[in-house]
Amino acid sequence: MRTRSVSTTGAIGEPMIDAKQAAASLRLPYYWFADPMMRAKHRIPHYLLGGLVRYRLSELQVWASHHARAMARSASDGSEEGGA
Fold it and tell me: With the C-alpha atoms ordered 63, 23, 32, 7, is the resulting torsion angle positive or negative?
């Protein structure tokens, strides 16, 4: 889990988004981004800005592609075990 205090535009000028925007952008459940335990479970990259949690869309897109590959690998491993 990555937590940092940064400005809302960050060092690279990319705007930060909130949990609702992150969920809508990635078409994932809102509670994955809103709940601290789910963020930790799924290792979602995020930033704490005072009492607010914010995300960078570029980091979330990289995370989502890695997460999707890991989920596909675990699904294929499970289906092979049940085979002949």
Answer: positive
Instruction: Tell me if 4 sits within 8 A of 48, measured CB to CB.
Output: yes
Say if residues 7 and 1 touch (Cβ distance below 8 Å).
no
Rounded to whole angstroms, the Cα distance separating 50 from 84 reads: 54
Q: From CA 15, how far away is CA 7, in angstroms rounded?
A: 9
Q: What is the per-residue pLDDT across 24-43, written as a single tens digit (0 to 9) for each?
A: 999 999 999 999 999 999 99
How many Å apart are CA 25 and CA 19, to the nearest integer? 10
Q: Global pTM?
A: 0.72
Q: Is 43 helix (H, G, I), strand (E, B) or coil?
A: coil
Residue 33 structure tokens? 């981004």
